[in-house]
Amino acid sequence: MSSPYPAPNSDRADEVSQASIGELIGNISDDLTSLFRQEVELAKAELKEEAGKAGKAAGMLGGAGFAGYLAVVLLSFALVFGLSNVMDAGWAALIVAVIWGIAGAVLYTTGRKQLRNVDPMPHRTVDTIKEDAQWLKNPTG
């Protein structure tokens, strides 16, 4: 006994069977264009997020550097004046300069190491592009 209701996908199947190859290719082209645009938007969002993290880290490093600079200048003068009571002022200034040079090298190395942890690769986008490519190779399964 046949059902008075059409099969759920019969209208779509009729449309597909009646569509020309050109229309089907056009539909696929439109779908691929839409998919590509979505992937680009996802990549932009991921890169923006990582850039925001890098910007915050750089701002904090800059603020810490400025505060540290002011402290270093004042402490350096105090240390030079303190050491000049025991030795020549020129030698005292040289010793203080070497100490701060070492401190600067350590800070530079630490900051560079932190910047290496910033990941500019949009991993989610790459994963979805791989999934899309796999789907295009085998759309039925």
The overall average pLDDT, rounded, is 81
Tell me the radius of gyration.
32 Å
Tell me the β content: under 5%
Estimate the helix proportion, in percent.
Answer: over 70%
Give the ordered list of helices and strands: HHHH
- SS-derived structural category: mainly alpha
Number of helical segments with 4 or more residues: 4
Apparent shape:
rod-shaped
Distance N to C terminus: 33 Å
Poorly predicted ranges: none
Count of individual domains: 1
Oligomer: single chain
Q: Describe the main β-sheet briefly.
A: none
Number of strands: 0
Keywords: Membrane, Transmembrane, Transmembrane helix
Protein name: Superfamily III holin-X
Pfam families: Phage_holin_3_6
Could you walk me through the main structural features you see in this protein, from its secondary elements to its overall organization?
It is built from four helices and no strands. The chain is mostly helical and 141 residues long. It has one domain (10-131). It starts with 9 loop residues before the first helix and ends with a helix.
Give a short synopsis of this structure.
The protein is mainly α. It contains four helices and no strands. The radius of gyration is 32 Å and the shape is rod-shaped.
